[in-house]
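Sanity check

After download, print the first record. It should look like this:
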Amino acid sequence: MADDSLYGKESADQPLQSTSENAGNGVSEMNLDSAAESSKAASTATTGTMAAPTATAGTTATAGTMATAGAVASANTYGSTADLRDNTGKLAAENAEERKAEEEENIEKQQKNLKQTKRQMRAVRRFLFHAFLLCFLLWIMFGVVFGILRMPTSDMTPRIDNGDLLMYYRLDKGYKADQVVVLEKNETTYVGRVVAVSGDTVEITDEGKLIINGNAVIEQRITTPTPRYEGFVEYPVKLGNNEYFILTDVRDGGEDSRYYGVVGKSEIKGSVFSLFRRNHF
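Expected structure tokens:
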């Protein structure tokens, strides 16, 4: 019994010991689990603690990168804007210079055109002035000083033929015998030779002789008689002041003072000084 008690005691002690051991083991296991959990929590906390700075650093790095990128972008944008402004300014300056050059070129062309127009106008004015001067000189020469006449008849042949061009001088103060003159009588132009001047007495005989101041006139150029035209002029004819007696070289049939009478100085247009033969044209 004692032994059983002992055994039972021992048995009783063993379970207790086992229980104690189990309890110790349980405690140990709990402690281990707690330690594990604590370690895990610590690790988690450590990891979280480490991750938090890492995340913070990452966030900081990302923010810095973004800030740097933003700054770079802003700098690039500002640089692009500045470059754009510079380019725009340069383009505007170039356009202004081009417009200025075009304006200067247009002004230069206008000035050249104006100068050319002025030169042309001066040339036109010079031409008109010279033309007017020439016309004036021609009018003075051939309207006042000289005259031109185409011989209208054959009354002065053979020296002057019909159609010959005659030039005569208008400003003679008086005319002398044997001068060939151009005259206008009864609105008709004639050409004849002066045979008697103021103060002379003219007589034509029935035989066809010319008598001046009682003297027969011997004319070397005239080879035919000078007939009297009856019914036109009464002889003798006394010439007054500035009166002339005109005869043609063709005495038979020529129209002269025997036909239209004496000629006043005012009716004589001028004395012939040159002629151009018709067959020379």
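If your output differs, re-run the checksum step. Summary of this record's structure: The CA atoms of residues 170 and 270 lie 4 Å apart.
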